[in-house]
Every structure is written in structure tokens, then in C-alpha cells.
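Could you help me review a protein record that somebody else here produced? This is what I was given.
***
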Amino acid sequence: MKLLTLGINHHTAPLAVREKVAFDPEFLQEALHDLRQHLVGANQAGLPEATILSTCNRTEVYCAANDASAAGLLHEATFDWLAKTQQLAPSSLEPHIYSLPQSDAVRHAFRVACGLDSMVIGETQILGQMKDAVRTANDAGVLGTYLNQLFQKTFAVAKEVRGSTEIGAHSISMAAASVRLSERIFEKISDQNILFIGAGEMITLCATHFVARKPKNVAIANRTIERGQELADSISIQDVEAQSFKLSELPGRLHEFDIIVSSTASSLPIIGLGMVESALKQRRHKPMVMIDLAVPRDFEPEISRLDDIYLYTVDDLGVMIQTGASLRQAAVSQAEAIIEDRVGNFMHWMQGRNAVPLIQDIQQQGERLRQLELERAMKRLMRGEDPQEVLNAMAQGLTNKFLHGSLHALQHSNGAERDALIKLLPKLFASHSKPEDH
């Protein structure tokens, strides 16, 4: 079985490239089915397994395919599918792609789940996102034995690392960084009006951090007002009551807010240059902080050129949160050691799984030989022959058949092959128990 992780992340590509590769969550199952069909069409033996992890910082395709296909073919087929699906020229995507086979793929999955490959070292959100990706693949029917085992082990390793190290200590989350950036422009969050666009996990985390500063007003703009109001109710605290309105009302209300934080799953920007220019005029050019946590981006990049606009993306926040690295280094080293040991365990399991078909064939062959000798013995007994002679003949027949293949191979081999058989055969025929001494 061949494992492969092919992906792009914040280490290998800028935001402008990552947003072109990101998948819309609503169409992820459809993409998984299309990927499997593409791999089957590329002569991958059997039904390949697949999972797609797509977040603001990474898009990764995890695949497992039978040994009959070369690892290079699996890489080529997966890369071609990704470029074609996202309508990108292979030459523009290839410089940013990493391709990790076998144990490297396992190690990478473990590191991602533990937060070691994240922009915020030790963050926990990626683990939940990975679990969602696995659930989606399972619902789509493309998560087979190998990837299922890989991810279950991945989640167990993440739990172990977080329980036995301080990997999450001294880290600054995206939400906390958003507050700090805003405080660089506005001294007091308590004097500002804040708008959150979207109602997902990231917005919920950010809203919780901002509301703790007790801003003047808080509003949620969302595609469905019910979900927006649900979030508004959940973050409201004493002296701060959040309101909600439909996203369609945004053009007429954008000027009301000093800080806008957005994270939606839209494939296109929802806030354009013209909308912001209009809002600035109504505000008489009072500054606005805009924090775009979405990939693809929710704000048109040209907005950053406007005076009085302070637009930050996930990459901008990433620069700020790279603090406390030295304090976390000991925990990172501990985590890496745990991961390395668990990678070895998983690869040992995979090797054992790869031997299952051979073991089954040997067992079936042994059963056929047993049945053949037993039938011969039963016929002789029914003819009235001496039971002792029949049993001796059956035992001799089984022994001869058991040894025939190995002795034949040894007699007809030479050179390195013969030397290898001479070393291997004693292990195959060694007794697991010794007769007791009397």
C-alpha cells in the first residue's frame, strides 16, 4: 500500500496562491468522488482512499493506493487532478507543492494534528478541522482501512502530545492577535464599534476575545440571520449586547463600524473597493481596521491601498504571532520525539497489513494440502488398512508437501539468492518451543 500527502501551505506559498487552491466546504464530498475517479482512471489498482484538508493555511490531499501502482504515478495523478480541479496551470502550482510518501506522510499528519506545522505553534483549531475533513471523507465513502487507521492514530498522537507536553503554552492565537493589531490603531477597544462577518468557529473565537474588551457596539453579519443571531446571543455579556443582520445589508451599514473581522467560506470577495470607498466618505475618513481571516479572501486586496484603511490578512497576523518560540522549543522537541516513535509503530502496522494477503494465501494452501491428505487417509481407513500405517503415511505426506517449496527453492537457487534463503529458512522453520529437559 502506498501513502501520499500532496499539499500546499503557509510555509510554501503566499496567501495569493493558497486561496486559489482552497476548496469550498460545500463541495468537498463532490471533489473527493471526483478525485477517486481520477485516480482509478490513472490505473491505480483497486479503489484508492482519499481525504482533503482545506483550511486558511493549507490545502492537503491524503491518498492511499494499492502497491500495484508506483508512488510516482500516484503523485502525478494527484497533482494533475489538483491543478485541473482548481483551474491552475501546473507550472504555477508546482513550485509551491510538497509531496510526502509513506512514513513522511504519516509524520506530517501527526505534526499537523499536534499543531507543530501551524502558523501558531501548538494551536488546537487544526485538530478539529482535520477531524471534520475525515468525517467528510467518511460520509463520502472514500475513507478506507488505511486512511481511517492513519487518522485515528493521528488523533491519538495529538491527544498524547497535548497531555504530556506544554506545546500549547506561550502561544498567541489568531483571535488574540486580531485584538492586538486593532489596539495598535485604536487605543481602546471599548470605544469602538465592531462588526463580525460570518458565524463559523474562527469568528466565534475572535468575537469572544473582542467582547471581553467590552466594545461600544457589536454586530454579526451573516448570510442567514438566524445563525448570526445565535452567535450574537452566545457572545453577549453584561453591558455588551450583540446584534445581527443579513449580509445583504452590509453595503448600507459598513460605515457604522470601526473594526471589521471577516471569515466566511465565500469563493469570491464579499467586500469590494467601491463599498469601502463609500463607507469612508460617510465616516469622513475616520480610520477603519479590517481583519480578513478568510481563504479565499473576503476583502479585495486593492482596499489596502486606501488611506485610513488598515487591512490585515492571515499572513499579516502570522508575522505577529511568531513569538514565544524559544519558550515552546522544549515542548516542541518532546512532541517531535513522541511523533517519531509513533510513526515507527504505524509503519510497522502497515507492513503487517501488507503481508495479510500473503498470509491468507499460505493458510489457504495449507488447508488444501491438509484436506487432500485427510481425504486420502479416510479412503485407506475405509478400505480396512492398518490405522497406524495410514497415520504414518498421512504425516509423511504432510511433511513432504510442507517442505517441498522451500527445499525446491534452495536447490534451484545460487549466489546472493541462495545466501538469503540459507539465512531465512532457519527462521521460518525454527521451533517456538523446546522440549523440556528430563
In short: Residues 2-170+325-354 form a domain with the Beta Polymerase; domain 2 fold (CATH 3.30.460.30).
